[in-house]
From TrEMBL:
GO BP, sorted A to Z: glycolipid catabolic process; glycoside catabolic process; oligosaccharide metabolic process
Predominant localisation class: other
Protein name in UniProt: Alpha-galactosidase
SUPFAM superfamilies named among the record's database cross-references: (Trans)glycosidases (SSF51445), Glycosyl hydrolase domain (SSF51011)
Any one GO cellular component localisation term in the record: lysosome
Enzyme Commission number(s) of this protein: 3.2.1.-
The protein's assembly and partners: Homodimer.
Hydrolase among keywords: yes
CDD domains named in the record: GH27
Keyword Disulfide bond: yes
MF terms (GO), sorted A to Z: alpha-galactosidase activity; alpha-N-acetylgalactosaminidase activity
Function per UniProt: Removes terminal alpha-N-acetylgalactosamine residues from glycolipids and glycopeptides. Required for the breakdown of glycolipids.
Gene name of this polypeptide: Naga
Gene source species: Quiscalus mexicanus
Signal peptide: 1-17
């Protein structure tokens, strides 16, 4: 830490988020619902976060790595206090954020909070202007916060260029380990020359590159299209401690079918994306829970090499193939169908997918769980992919060619 403080230009090597962060986030499912009189069960209040923390701790999520409970926008009072400090809404968070953090920590979990680098948050609550950056970082640290998402509504390009690095320094200076999630690139179109991913990786642990996810398949597809169309720029930027964030998992809500839910989970895993669920864990269906709690899927997502996968094939038949290299010479393959008619039989070989010649792999189906068998690079094989669905394989080398 002392070194980090002595070298303010290298704002972030805080040793955090060595694998993509996992947890739960309020925004997509619960938005800015602050009407606790009419809707006490679903409004943004300490009660909602207490209940979600209980679910993460008691329903098998925490053991799988889902450890962050993240408050999004609309938690604060409409004004700062007399000392200029952010304060939580006294009616909706009567115990205060420190008490909520203590509750979360007592369950072996971590607490995330939301701020916005601007005069207001996107929901119209007090923002963090440049003169408030240090004070707000100290406030969050004093409360026991473990992650900060810093949004960018109501701020200029110049303010963002100063403020995002400034907050990284301010968080490091608190001495508390706080994962730093930036929305900076999303406000600058997500691509060079406006976005410098080399600088971003030195400042932030994860960053939002693109639009907010909505509860629809159309939204998921728009994110997938943007990320893989621009994979040559985005893929090298990701790695241990610094991740592209395509936004929350909406599995378990209303907009995705069973097949589409499986597709979002597989594609986010191949992207080495943070797995931040935004759904009601109190009422989640067994099928959605099974997708989100797939152990092999999570193992692939959390692979220590931290290499983001790429789309390697885009067929006229509307089948796409994605590959993510993993540690110990393993790989994840996702066969994805954009078709809307019927299950499609797709035939290819590992040779066509540029695997090394004369290698042999043990193939495991990630969703079914069973070992498909041994596969040589030259062997043709077929997979049957449902409309808007995926087949996902985990490949372990049994015999690699002599180098």
């Amino acid at each position: 830490l002392a070194l980090a403080l002595a070298l303010p230009s290298v704002a972030l090597e805080n040793g955090l988020a060595r694998t993509p962060p996992m947890g739960w986030m309020s925004w997509e499912r619960f938005r800015c619902n602050v009407d606790c009189q009419a809707d006490p069960h679903n409004c943004i209040s300490e009660q909602l976060f207490f209940e979600m923390a209980d679910r993460l701790a008691e329903d098998g999520w925490r053991e799988l790595g889902y450890e962050y409970i993240n408050i999004d926008d609309c938690w604060s009072a409409k004004q700062r206090d007399a000392a200029g400090q952010l304060v939580p809404d006294p009616k909706r968070f009567p115990s205060g954020i420190k008490a909520l953090a203590d509750y979360v920590h007592a369950r072996g979990l971590k607490l995330g909070i939301y701020g916005d680098l601007g005069i207001f948050t996107c929901g119209g609550y007090p923002g963090t202007t440049l003169e408030n950056v240090k004070q707000d970082a100290q406030t969050f640290a004093a409360w026991g916060v473990d992650m900060l998402k810093l949004d960018g509504c109501y701020s200029s390009t110049e303010e963002q260029a100063k403020g995002y690095p400034e907050m990284a320094r301010a968080l490091n200076a608190t001495g508390r380990p706080i994962v730093y999630s930036c929305s900076w690139p999303a406000y600058q179109g997500g691509l060079p020359p406006k976005v410098n991913y080399t600088i971003l990786a030195e400042i932030c642990n994860l960053w939002r590159n693109y639009d907010d996810i909505q509860d629809s398949w159309e939204s998921v597809l728009s994110i997938v299209d943007w990320f893989f169309t621009n994979q040559d720029v985005l893929q090298p930027a990701a790695g241990p401690g610094h991740w592209n964030d395509p936004d929350m998992l909406i599995i378990g809500n209303f907009g995705l079918s069973f097949e589409q839910s499986r597709s979002q989970m597989a594609l986010w895993t191949v992207m080495a994306a943070p797995l931040l669920m935004s759904t009601d864990l109190r009422t989640i269906s067994p099928s959605a829970k099974e997708i989100l709690q797939n152990r092999l899927m999570i193992q692939i997502n959390q692979d220590p090499l931290g290499i983001q996968g790429r789309r390697i094939v885009k067929e006229k038949s509307q089948i796409e193939v994605f590959l993510r290299p993993l540690s110990r010479a393993a790989s994840a393959l996702v066969f994805f169908s954009r078709r809307t008619d019927m299950p499609f039989r797709y035939t290819t070989s590992l040779a066509k997918l540029h695997f090394p010649e004369d290698a042999v792999y043990e193939v495991q189906d990630v969703y079914v769980g069973k070992i498909v068998g041994a596969l040589r690079t030259a062997d043709n094989f077929s997979v049957v992919i449902n409309p808007s669905g995926v087949v996902m394989w985990y490949l372990r080398p049994m015999a690699l060619p002599v180098q």
